[in-house]
Amino acid sequence: MTETKRLKIGDGVISGYLSVFLAIVALGAVICAYFPEYLTTADFRALYNPKFLKSVVLGCLTVSFIFALVSFVLSKKTLLSFMSTLVIAATILLATWLPEGTEIESKAVTIGMDWLLLDILISAIIFIPIELFLPKRKEQSKFHPEWRTDLFYFVVSHLLIQVTGVLVQLPSELLFANIGLSAFQDGIKALPFIVQLFLALFVSDLFQFSAHYMFHKIPFLWRFHAVHHSTKHLDWLAGSRTHFVDLITVRAVSFLPIYIFGFSMTVFSTYIIIVSIQAVLAHSNTRINFGVFKYIFVTPQYHHWHHSDDPKAYDKNFCIHFPFIDMIFGTYYPMKEEWPEATGLGKEKFPKGFVKQFIFPFLKNPSNENQLEDPSER
Ligand SMILES: [Zn+2]
Ligand SMILES: [Zn+2]
Asked: The pTM is what?
């Protein structure tokens, strides 16, 4: 497949896409308001302030309209501006017909559309400017051949947040719910915030390290994790490309110590925010590197080396928070200023698209040309 051209600032295309994106987010938010019992996450509902939400939707529509105008003026093309104007009009129309707030029924199964819209909006606000103004691979287009697959992973994993949440917590609850940890957990909660936060990040990263290591070293597990490593274009969406077996298992293992330690709610929420931001940042196409702090915190350069297709960097840099854990276990890649030439699975053929990648690891030998059978040869 041919590479798409990198978008240039000033030709009106970026503003056009941003305009369409914001209009779709606003439309999605209004659709959520029509079916809140199905499309919003039960745990989040209590946090929603209707006035604030209305301002967010209005803000998205206004900025979308401004971007549509900018795009039209700069590009002299009407397609993107026309598309966003249509979506803006549909959103306003739907919003005016919205019935006044009634009691929301609790349904057993919900779809996390609210989580999807919220996270994609926040991630786009943080990471699109970072990749636009501080890129690592300047030549890499936002619309590279793999972006649709990665976006699909992002959408599906967010919509299924209820299912994944239950599955991730299940092993902890089954193993540790009835073993009387409350005295120990009260002791942990009494620790200062910063100590608890460091402990949360450190112990979960230690557990994550072991699970991640297994997914690299055990051939059957590597098939699932290879999906994550198959992308040749790392960016803020690429980290979402993770097979469900990989995602649930590694998160469930990382959650075990968090459950046992029973950190305070503030620590747990801060931990979740840090995990979410650091995981996306680590995959982003940006040269931001935190100076000497790169030896303490995981950076894009560190995680890009984990994805390198150069054999000298295979099975290195497993952590998601603290690189020094890799240093302790001898799996740190001794990088200086250099970045990997390329990422992915080298010359190995790998199925493209969400469905094929979902099925692939369950099949015994999907391709004879594929050398994924024995990761020790990688
Ligand atoms: Zn890996
Ligand atoms: Zn990764």
From this structure: 0.89
If you measure from the C-alpha of residue 277 to the centroid of ligand 1, how many angstroms do you get, rounded to a whole number?
18
Ligand number nearest to the C-alpha of 216 = 1
Which ligand gives the minimal distance to the CA of 236?
2
The closest ligand to the CA of 318 turns out to be 1
Domain encompassing residue 46? 13-110
From residue 11, give the alpha-carbon distance in Å to each of 74, 253, 313.
Answer: 6, 47, 39
Query: What is the mean predicted confidence (pLDDT) over 179-187?
Result: 91
- Residue 155: inside a domain, yes or no? no
What is the full DSSP assignment across 234-261? -STTGGG---HHHHHHHHHHHHHHHHHH
Question: Which two structure tokens, joined as six digits, stand for 323?
Answer: 């690189």
Alpha-carbon distance 179 to 184, whole Å? 11
Per-residue pLDDT at 116 exceeds 50: yes
282 alpha carbon, closest ligand: 2
- Report if residue 143 sits inside a domain: no
Inside any domain, residue 127: no
**Among the bound ligands, the one closest to the CA of 314:** 1
Examine residue 2 and state whether it is found in any structural domain, yes or no.
Answer: no
Q: What is the mean pLDDT of the chain?
A: 89
Give the pLDDT confidence of 52-101 residue by residue, as tens digits. Answer: 888 999 999 999 999 999 988 888 778 888 898 999 999 999 988 877 76
> How far apart are the CA of 354 and the centre of ligand 1, in A?
18
Task: Clarify whether residues 50 and 165 are in a common domain.
Answer: no
Q: How many angstroms is it from 229 CA to the middle of ligand 1? A: 6
Q: How many domains does the chain have?
A: 2
